[in-house]
Amino acid sequence: MPDELINVLHQDGEQNGGTTVQRFWTGDYYNEGNGRDDIFDKLKEECGVFGVYGHPDAAALSYYGLHALQHRGEESAGICTSDRGEFHYHRGMGLVKEVFDQGRIESLPGDRSIGHVRYSTAGESKLANAQPLVFKYRGGDLAVATNGNIVNAPNLRRELEAQGSIFQTSSDTEVIAHLIARSPKDLVEAVKDAFGRLIGGYAFLILTNDRLIVASDPHGLRPLVMGRLGEGYIFASESCALETIGATYLRDVQPGELLVLDKDGLREDRFAQLERRAVCAMEYIYFARPDSDINAINLHSARKRMGRQLAIEAFTDADVVTGVPDSSISAAIGYAEQTGIPYELGLIKNKYTGRTFIQPSQELREKGVKMKLSAVRKVVEGKRVVMIDDSIVRGTTSLRIVNLLREAGALEVHVRITSPPFSNPCFYGIDTPDRRDLIAHSKTVEEIRQAINADSLYFLSQPGLIEAIGGHDGETDRGLCLGCFSNDYPTQTEFEDAKIGCGCD
Ligand code: SF4
Hints:
The protein is α+β, with helices and mostly antiparallel strands. 29% of the residues lie in helices and 25% in strands.
């Protein structure tokens, strides 16, 4: 049986002069490195998606929306629009502002679009996996943008290949495109059937010549919101993107929901019933922007409550409280409010380091730490410091930051973490190291304290975290996924080649 699907984006790189660039970037210091040799070992963010239906400035709105979601992925960006049944698209490596300029945006006409930013890796950059992926199939054109990961993608891929499908990328997104293309049913039913076969955490935007289809996985693991701007509908991974373009927030897309937008307007449908809501707790702790709301919970407020809860669970007398920028500043403010210990900017992130394309020596890499994050000597010298951070992955980041504070004269450094120990991998789109490389997997809290050179260390309890976030009463863990802390995942994860991390590659 011949393959019915043609991935057309490889042509895009040639037609539009796009190139695949080998880069050694040090980029954002949190996302730097390849997981083996990085300065800061923070968890890698996922991707961001943005969709428009029924607004004449679809491409420009996507540009600004993706810009607001840039923290979710810095490696590549892309936008595909549909104009009177014809697709126009561009994608490239780099930040949104690097991939698109005025001319590019003007070359993308139409009143509907989907866009994507992809998370950052170092070393080899893959244009082939940049999204949206665009396909031709017997029903016309199909563009797909996704955030998350499909755990059983390798199994589905093997099955499809055995039936004759030819894959051109390693992205999960292509799996769903093949499933849709092979179905004899009409498009919406084919999409529902295809999603019914996926196991994982994902938010999908699918653009056809005349429709936009929006879906969230049956557990709502990855955030996705819906808003309105004029007569148009807007979809985004985070509500901050709605704010940026002046759209009004309508609601979060619900787990298992399938929304279809076409000339008849918006149709609300489902492809799965809600079994167990499980929104990613790390979105609240770290990933999402503090000005975003997920399920009506503001992230800044939730992080402040985490800081307060930490103070209740693990108070220590100190002279100043500081937060590791940017994600832990809200929690540090909460800790300070609860204890009365003054909050100070003891650590400063240099926002202007940008990307560098130099592969640094180890000595320079150590200097690079100070180029990107500095301790404020006047604030911490001679002081007992409480340092709030969101997570400890391998432990190297915490060690470096504790040492920065000590070198700047801190007498004591007490580390408080706004999450329970991160001891298990994520299967739903967060790029996590191998389980054996997670320091909390093999070490006790006391051993971690010693490894990061802290005077004391405390991780927020799981009940404390759940309470601080809030959420849905009466649901398992109040509707949160806590799998990386508890090893209790909301879906089956045991497959022959179960995928962990992000589905983008
Ligand atoms: S396993 Fe952890 S990082 Fe992954 S979705 Fe669940 S809470 Fe988020």
